[in-house]
Prior knowledge:
With 130 residues, this protein is mainly β.
Amino acid sequence: MEEVSVGDNPTDVYLGTFYKSDGITPTDTWKRRGVTEAIPLLGIMGQEVLRIQQSPATVFDGDVFGFFDSLSTITIDGVPGTFLPINYGYDTILNKITAKFLRIFNGELTDIEYKITLDYGKVVKPTIKG
């Protein structure tokens, strides 16, 4: 079990607090595209790390002609799976991207339990125990 002492907070005690669309209420849960479950941002981050590390890493690196958004996922012809850029550089003159791609796994993780403990600004620095 991992304990993380920062995340969505019901107050704006931290600089950089994310707000809901009303511009006043801080966020408390998030949804991923295509998933109906709403969970805290740190829960989503934890799931994404676990999803990426489900099996030995498959990494490709090289050049791609043209442009794509660095926050995109990609597929590679003839290689099963979805890949995420983990290192990305774009040469505007040559219209070429030099990147390193890590294979990610899209299966949902159903055996994770969350325990939310609110932090009211008493923690000076984030800690992870494990």
